[in-house]
Specification:
Elements lengths: L1 E7 L11 H10 L1 E7 L6 H6 L5 H15 L3 E4 L13 E3 L2 E3 L3 E4 L5 E4 L7 H5 L1 H27 L7 H8 L1 H20 L4 E4 L6 E5 L2 E5 L8 E5 L5 E5 H10 L19 E3 L12
Parallel strand pairs: 1-2, 2-3, 3-5, 7-8, 8-10
Antiparallel strand pairs: 1-11, 4-5, 6-7, 9-10, 11-12, 12-13
Helix pairs in contact: 1-3
Length: 282
């Protein structure tokens, strides 16, 4: 599949929960003119505590570099987990490092692209609390592993405890909603048509009043990417869902063993000017 632009966010390479294999498969089967890495590509926070870097994570980095060498323009926007890269802003071959960027679709829609941690009050003002929240998040992810192992033994699909907490804890839901409003308001004040971000691990396309809000999601829970088709249409892709659909069409004897997919994810698209009310996919 060929796209004009692809946005991927919150890869968190260097952690055990990064879906590096899925991301590598996505990059191998999709070509694009421009790739946005929308922050938290490498999780330096976790690497400081535990050194973890398997070959698949190295393969992802090499694949991105290979895409750049073959002509794809790569724009890397550092997030809070890889904020040290903000000290290296500039052009490096076909890769550019920026704190934010403005992307114009082939339909003329002007989108502000940034990670979004700048609008997270906890990270900006109470960083120790952000580290504590990060530890709690990865604790939930670790609890997911034995839980999903048991679910697979009984024939059930994957289920995310951390996603359940984010969906149902009112304070967390309100915090994410405030984040979305703040990011959208910032971009709208700059006379732009929409915003593309990451940070909250919430793949979503929706309207905030008359403004387009896009979140590319993450490659920890959602394995999602935002793409611009060659005709300028924007779509949110859940890679695990696509693979699950492809796997379900295979003959029973040809299906891979021991692979579980998240069947709750959806494909969403939004045309400029359209009004979409979509469920949150955590």
């Amino acid at each position: 599949m060929e796209y004009r632009t692809v946005w991927i966010s919150d890869l968190h390479l260097g952690t055990r929960d990064c879906d590096a294999a899925g991301l590598l498969a996505f990059l191998k089967t999709h070509d694009f003119e421009k790739l946005y890495l929308v922050g938290d590509v490498i999780d330096v926070w976790r690497l400081k505590k535990q050194r973890y870097w398997p070959q698949t994570h190295n393969d992802v980095v090499q694949k991105i570099l290979r895409k750049a060498r073959r002509g794809a323009r790569v724009i890397f926007i550092p997030g809070n987990h890889d904020e040290f890269c903000s000290n290296f802003l500039g052009l490096y071959g076909n890769i550019v490092v920026r704190t934010e960027d403005v992307h114009t679709t082939c339909r003329g829609q002007r989108l502000l692209v940034l990670h979004g941690h700048e609008f997270d009050a906890v990270i900006k003002h109470v960083k120790w609390l952000a580290y504590l929240g990060d530890a709690g998040y990865y604790l939930l992810l670790r609890l997911n592993r034995p839980l999903n192992f048991l679910r697979r033994q009984f024939g059930f699909g994957s289920w995310s405890l951390s996603a359940y907490v984010k969906r149902n804890v009112k304070k967390v839901v309100n915090t994410v909603s405030q984040f979305e409003d703040a990011v959208a308001h910032y971009a709208k004040d700059r006379a732009l048509d929409g915003v593309v971000c990451g940070h909250v691990h919430t793949p979503e396309i929706r309207r905030i009043r008359d403004f387009a809000y896009y979140n590319a999601g993450d490659w920890v829970e959602s394995s999602s990417a935002l793409v611009e088709h060659l005709d300028g249409r924007l779509e949110l892709i859940h890679w695990r869902t696509q693979m699950a659909m492809a796997e379900s069409r295979l003959p029973e004897t040809s299906r891979p063993i021991g692979i579980a997919f998240d069947s709750t994810a959806t494909l969403l698209s939004l045309h400029p000017g359209a009004s979409v009310s979509s469920p949150r996919n955590w």
